[in-house]
Amino acid sequence: MIRIMKYGEVSNNEIFARKIPTANVTDKVADILKNVRERGDAAVLEYTARFDGAALDSLLVTPDEIEEAFAAVESGFLDVLRKAAANITKFHTRQVRNSFIINDEDGIVMGQKIIPIDRVGLYVPGGTAALPSSVLMGVIPAKIAGCREIVIATPPGKDGKIAPVILAASKVAGADTILKAGGAQAIAALAFGTESLPKVDKIMGPGNAFVNEAKRQVFGSVAIDMIAGPSEIMVIADAKSNPVYVAADLLSQAEHDKLASAVLVTDSMDLAVKVRDELERQLPLLSREEIARASIENNGKIIVTDDLKKVIDVANEIAPEHLELCLDNPFDYLDGIRHAGSIFMGRNCPEALGDYLAGPNHTLPTQGTAKFSSPLSVDDFVKKTQYTYFTGDALRRVAGDVEAFALKEGLTAHARSAVIRLEE
């Protein structure tokens, strides 16, 4: 049963505690990365047979496999995929940044160019569930950004095939290449390249402890988006909220993972008790009851405060991945929320809308990193470069200033490079 805590009556350490998952996989991952780096396809095939039970002839999905999978998915769900893709495209298109140029002084031109990353790798988990939504959320921003090649890596089933819904989503979104591999071996293949797959420049997407540790270790050889932890939801609700809805929303994230956390923060003890009881009623109805119950009992909590202002303070301190404002007039509270991955406004906006259909990205900062990180976006798939142009006359106007700066730092070659042009 979920625990109810009264703010001010228990320590802040308990209120704000997060159970950070730990797994001693550092050395195992290092060995996998080294083996794939040295042996390429052969190592990835061996690990896929060992960990996924799949004996593969090749690592890449063929066009025929994609067409076969696309035909196997019911047309109604294909329509849902297309609708979700359209919403995701509409939202992420607004994120596109433009290059700029400044030339408002005689003889001086400066600017910044926005350049798509050439090759990106998107990891799509496939352990306890196939997640076509993650395909859309990764591929579509990359396409909008203009990346030249988009590679998906996802583990196969024991039959050596990728789930049809994953391949269908890949076709709808426009992925270029699909790697039949998961875990640290997939990250290694993306980061270092193999005979079948050139290396990528950046790796994105959530995964288990092996995937996260592999991303951590290959960072520097390639870029990564973030180290994503287990899923989190915080629901802010008042006495007017429906406990049935609140409990359902908490369970929507608890069913992801035994390590997921579901938190209710409210100014109503009556609601807290009703939600606790409702969780116990709804849990047996879930197909993933065991996972959701472990999450609720081990990582879930209900925090009761004296007023809504304190509720907002608690939310900002925890900085949840998903935050629901189950309140009237939620926009009145929006400016007060400083730290959250994605915010769901009002009493009719369950977090599941964001997972699948609404349009904003569902790859979000976890473990409190929303205090300094952002959702996956088009920005993650581009880089910037800048340029400067000065005429001789323009340089003469500032060469003395450059010299003064350089000499103050003791860098005489810097100073000389600016003033030497004035000697001609």
Beta-strand portion reads 15-25%
**Range of helix content:** 40-55%
User: Could you say which overall geometry the principal axes of the C-alpha atoms support?
Assistant: globular
Q: Average pLDDT value? A: 95
Tally of contiguous helical segments: 17
- Structural class based on helices, strands and sheet pairing: alpha/beta
Which blocks of ≥5 consecutive residues have pLDDT under 50? none
Distance between the termini: 82 Å
Structural Rg: 25 Å
Q: Biggest sheet, strands in spatial order?
A: 1-11-10-9-12-13
Largest sheet: 6 strands, parallel
Q: Please tally the β strands and state the result.
A: 14
Overview of the structural elements:
Helices cover 44% and strands 17% of the residues. It is an alpha/beta fold. The strands form 3 sheets. It has a 6-stranded parallel sheet with strand order 1-11-10-9-12-13, with helices on both faces. A 5-stranded parallel sheet has the order 6-5-4-7-8, sandwiched between helices. Helix 2 packs across helix 9 (209-218), helix 5 (75-93) packs across helix 6 and helix 10 (243-254) crosses helix 11. The radius of gyration is 25 Å and the shape is globular.
Write a short abstract of this structure:
The chain is 44% helix and 17% strand.
Topology:
Blueprint: E1 3-6, H1 12-15, H2 26-39, H3 41-52, H4 63-72, H5 75-93, E2 100-105, E3 108-116, E4 119-123, H6 132-145, E5 149-154, H7 164-173, E6 177-180, H8 183-192, E7 202-204, H9 209-218, E8 223-224, E9 232-237, H10 243-254, E10 261-266, H11 269-282, H12 289-299, E11 301-304, H13 308-318, E12 322-326, H14 331-334, E13 342-345, H15 351-356, E14 382-390, H16 392-408, H17 412-419
Helix pairs in contact: 2-3, 2-8, 2-9, 4-7, 5-6, 5-7, 6-7, 8-9, 10-11, 16-17
